[in-house]
Amino acid sequence: MAVRRMLFVVPVIVVVSTGLFAAAAMSPFDPLVGYLGSRYMTTSEADKALIASQMGFGNPWYSTYWTWLQGVLTGDLGISRSFNQPVSQVISERLPWTLLLVGISLMIAILASLTLGVLAGIRKGGFLDKTVSGLCVVVQGLPPFVMSLGAIALFALALGWLPVAGLTDGGADPTAGQVIRHLILPVAVLAISQMPWLLLAVRESVAGAAGEGFVAGAVARGIPAPTITKRHILPTSLAPFVNIIGVRLPELIVGAVLVEEVFSWPGIAGAIVSSARDLDMALLAFLTVGTTFTVMLGSLLADVVVAVIDPRVNTDG
């Protein structure tokens, strides 16, 4: 199964990248505007035509795509017009900060969802269950950027507990203390925004497993409740939880982009927005392909983990 899924990645990436270049060619946005910026209005038509020709803006999209693909296959990712840097440099400078934000947020969301979901599922209908379920419904209806603005208004502006945005205070070096203080709000917002689906999945799985016959048999044998939860209920509930993590990866990426933009976090989000606005195809194509690959790989890993922890899953199909 895993081998077939990996082989399927290649045609999907080809289709996505081809579609991206074709769609960019039909876009009403002029890449020359993004390239010249404020100089566009003062540049003569002759100079505009010359620059467009030199930059290849007038080339057919399939020619531009083929040139980009050849470069990628030979290890040359090209130059980002938006940042006037090699694409590899843009990625290497920004990706670690995104991985830091997403990694910590996902870890917190997983641990909190597992803990609260198990407690709510075991005591289904109780106070904790009703409270947690109600909060999940509220959080589900709030886009990440709304939560981000609310967190800034409360904790940064009203209370003054945490910085508004950025990686560090103005002019400060990126020390561990500076980064941690500026990371608290975006991590909290991104983690909370991802929790409802994860938490409710655990709650439903635990509540369903708690009503199974093997749990009743364990209770009848006098096995302590914590042992029943740990050895019987939790293992059965992990498979749906892991599956949900894989399914929700695209939402996690979108949420990270929105949160990074609001908090001015120096991650990949700014590069995605800038490259899309300027039709910076060298950078935009690589980010799009990279995101597609990440989502597909995450989904595959989730399926593999599910098959490992739940032997009942058929891995032949």
Would you kindly provide a written description of the structure presented here, covering whatever features stand out?
The protein has 317 residues and is mainly α. The chain folds into two domains: 2-86, no CATH class; 90-309, MetI-like fold (Orthogonal Bundle), CATH 1.10.3720. Helix content is 75%, strand content 1%. It contains 13 helices and two strands. It has helices at 2-25, 31-36, 45-55, 61-73, 87-122, 127-140, 144-158, 176-210, 213-220, 225-247, 249-262, 268-278, 281-309; strands spanning 79-80, 85-86. A two-stranded antiparallel ribbon has the order 1-2. The longest helix is centred in the N-terminal third of the chain and has 36 residues, at 87-122. It is globular.
Shape: globular
State the end-to-end CA separation. 6 Å
CATH architect. name of the largest domain:
Orthogonal Bundle
Q: Give me the secondary-structure category.
A: mainly alpha
- CATH domain class of the largest domain: Mainly Alpha
Could you describe the largest sheet, including whether it forms a barrel?
2 strands, antiparallel
Number of continuous helical runs: 13
Proportion of residues in β-strands: under 5%
**Overall pLDDT metric:** 82
Give helix % range. Answer: over 70%
The CATH superfamily of the largest domain turns out to be MetI-like
List the domain count as a whole number.
2
| CATH topology description of the largest domain | MetI-like fold
Oligomer: single chain
Write down the secondary-structure element order. Answer: HHHHEEHHHHHHHHH
